[in-house]
Amino acid sequence: MFQKILIANRGEIACRVAATARRLGIKTVAVYSDADAGAKHVAVCDEALAIGPAPSKESYLRYEKIIQAALATGAQAIHPGYGFLSENEEFADSCARAGLVFIGPPASAIRAMGSKSAAKALMESADVPLVPGYHGENQDADFLRGQADAIGYPVLLKASAGGGGKGMRIVERSEDFEAALKSCKREAINSFGDDRVLVEKYLIRPRHIEIQVFADTHGNCVYLYERDCSVQRRHQKVLEEAPAPGMSETRRRSMGQAAVAAARAVGYVGAGTVEFIANQDGSFYFMEMNTRLQVEHPVTEMITGTDLVEWQLRVAAGEPLPLRQDELSIHGHALEARIYAENPEKGFLPSIGTVRRLRTPAAAHFEPGAGAGAADPAAVRIDSGVREGDAISPFYDPMIAKLIVWGRDRDEALARMSQALAEYQLVGLATNVAFLKRLVESAPYSRADLDTGLIERHRDALFPPAQATALPALALAAAALLDGEGHPGGGDPWAGTGGWRMNGTLVRRLAFSDEAGSQVVELGYQRQGWSLQAGGQRASVALVGREDTQFTLRLDDAVVRGNVVREGETVHVFTGGRHVTLHHGDPLAHAGELEAEGGRLTAPMPGKIVALLTEKGAVVEKGAPLLIMEAMKMEHTIAAPAGGTVEELLYAVGDQVSEGVQLLAFKAA
Ligand code: MV4
After folding, report:
1. Could you give the C-alpha distances from 221 to 81, 218, 369, 597, in angstroms and in order?
2. pLDDT-based confidence at residue 487 (cuts at 50, 70, 90)
3. pTM, two decimal places
4. In the chain, at which end, N or C, are there fewer CB atoms within 10 A of the end residue's CB?
């Protein structure tokens, strides 16, 4: 086994790899960019070396620097994590040339799976099921249309060099084929510099089911069952689970064996994932193979009682796989939710900033769980590279944490996930925690009615209109504001005198605004506390206790508990599993401010202009898309804040813009 490894990554996966290395007594070397000098992954490794400026192209992707760092520190092997250099065959080759072990598959296997159409041809010869279609070299338009006619509509055109959903066209009828082919080829040449396409039968409401495989250098190859990753948003996974709901033992075995056949066909070694697209009837077809450890590997670890990073290290060190196929089994059910710094209400726009407060549900540090028949694994696991006080920068993926739960069955896991999300407290940036909670509690997800269109189809239920803040949260916010005032003499603030009198009674009036509008809370001093009035409701309220940010109130006969965190004029209330954000102050002054902000056409974050959808002098309606920016790997449409005229376009396609700059001159009508 290695004595020292270098981890060529950052964030949660670097921390995850370091945790296993530490458990096995292996020393770790971190590498970091200028933006990450104070990052958690640097803190959890034994040594760390700087490798360049913040942009990944100048740091985490600079493999000669990383190899130098490994040689300089005496590391024997490099773990690439996922993303960055994990599926870069040149990097794998360079490691070998430098006498370092690349903890991953052979470069030849990365190459074989890199091209979609070549991989499909290889899989066909290995008897791995493929979606009915044509993936050959003949690109003649009439020939391809003939293929589509033979397959039967609808068909899907895909760029051979594509991935992640780019360059795909659904064709419903033979008459539409030619136009769709042209448009698909145009996008393919622009995006990938290669206009070859393949034609496939288009599957309706498919599921994304992937198989974890593992191979060693002694000819052993096993599958560690499936993960269902159907719940995605624009080809980004949101929720993952293992095992896949509704999977029969027979189908599980045939998918597992197909995945092992796929791995064997490319001489695979190490951790890999074979992705299948599955019909609702259970038939499944090979999509692609990911030649790395995946983000969602923890759900597999939870149900199999394995530590897949330990397996990677053992295999890379030349040891045989720790378990044979007949020694593996499934124990319980695991779910993973990806917690992101993003704003679901604003089209999932990534949110940049500092995590001012972070409270997580009680979770075990990562320990590989025990297998079937032994003790249950931890109920909640959190893999994260972000701590309170850390910044989410525009340079890297905005994932804050992976929340992984285990239950004896899916329902138990679901209940735990819902509870764990309710206990998350994050302040400082927008997050998807509330969205995830609505998603896991939604009817289709609860009954495992899964397919890749779930989020889109249930958009209305997943994005309910903003509701006025309920009385308990208002009472907590009011309590915290009054309690925080500090009263001369240090007595009970609730008995304080900082108010005014109306008809002889002491009255305090607090103005709040939330997404639904503004609310005024009136507190009237009573002998035994206060009477609270807001939104036409009235209740008596008394402070029962306070511990740091946690307040306990009596609201009429009920006990209400919650955490209140102030961030300037913003008051965050965490109660009843919800996070309510209130602005405190003059509601009218605030409304003016928000309007002014919406009227400026500025870059919400640093990024690149990818499309201009308007021109100088154009008269547009409110909401008309004006330009598209790409930032943090996502596209953001900038829309007209009101009806008006585009007076000047200030940037061209391809321009890099920094946060806050004005993008165009616009005059509201
Ligand atoms: C498909 C498909 C339906 N029919 N192929 C999207 C990304 C790429 N890896 C494959 N994708 C799809 N291929 C056929 N023949 C539907 C999708 C698809 C999808 C697949 C997996 C996970 C999420 C998806 C979301 C939309 C579409």
Report:
1. 21, 9, 22, 57
2. very low
3. 0.85
4. C
Residue from 171, 184, 240, 452 to probe ligand 1 pocket by mutation (most atoms less than 8 Å from CB): 452
Supply the DSSP symbol for 542. E
Hey, what's the torsion of the CAs at 450, 452, 454, 457, to 10 degrees? -140
* Token pair in block for residue 158: 């895909």
What is the atom index within ligand 1 of the atom nearest the CA of 203?
Answer: 4
Could you tell me which residues come within 8 angstroms of residue 337 by beta carbon, excluding any fewer than 6 positions away? 238, 239, 402, 403, 417, 421, 436, 440
In DSSP terms, which residues pair with 159 in a beta bridge?
197
3-state secondary structure 470-509: CHHHHHHHHHHHHHCCCCHHHCCHHHCCCCEEECCEEEEE
The catalytically annotated residue of 292, 410, 438, 508 is 292
Q: Which residue has the tokens 């189809």?
A: 457
392, 355 Cβ separation under 8 angstroms: yes
Closest CA to 145 of 175, 110, 170, 115: 175
Nearest CA to ligand 1 atom 8: 165
List beta partners, residue 131: none
Residue 277 CA to ligand 1 centre (angstroms): 7
Which amino acid type is present at position 114? Answer: G
Task: Give Dmax over CA atoms of the chain in angstroms.
Answer: 90
Contact 17, 77 (CB under 8 A): no
CA of 165 from ligand 1 middle (Å) equals 7
Domains and CATH numbers, the chain: 4-103 (3.40.50.20), 132-201 (3.30.1490.20), 207-462 (3.30.470.20), 471-584 (3.30.700.40), 595-668 (2.40.50.100)
- Active-site annotation holds for 356: no
Half-sphere CA count of 56, side-chain side, radius 13 A: 16
**Structure confidence by residue, pLDDT tens digits, 166-224:** 889 999 999 999 999 999 999 999 888 899 999 999 999 999 999 999 999 999 999 99
The SS3 of residue 352 is coil
Cβ atoms 474, 517 nearer than 8 A: no
Token pair listed for 413: 């896991």
Residue 257 CB partners (closer than 8 Å, separation 6+)? 223
Question: Are the C-beta atoms of 367 and 578 separated by less than 8 Å?
Answer: no
Name all residues whose Cβ lies below 6 A of ligand 1: 131, 156, 165, 200-203, 206, 208, 232, 235, 277, 287, 452
Question: Is 269 within 8 Å of 292 (Cβ atoms)?
Answer: no
635-664 residue pLDDT tens: 677 878 788 888 888 888 888 888 777 888
Sign of CA dihedral 63, 66, 71, 74: negative
